[in-house]
Request: fold
Amino acid sequence: MILTIGERIKILRDRKQVTQESFAKSVGRSLSIVCRVETNDRELTYSEIFVWAKALGVEPESLILNTIPGCDQRSPRQVCNNHG
Reply:
């Protein structure tokens, strides 16, 4: 199962125990944009991927390639949610 970028962002943000509002401020975007990205109603631009990854403390590849550290790629939703 492959996670969307929005799902990966939510998992990583939850792991850091950061609210959507706080995260929005850290990436210079509105709360509504963060919500829309996490629910896959808005895609990130290439440059946003780098900014958001940095704010989450991961490499951009973790958002693009479905390589979240600590997630079992065979069943990512279950394993990743247990880590969050």
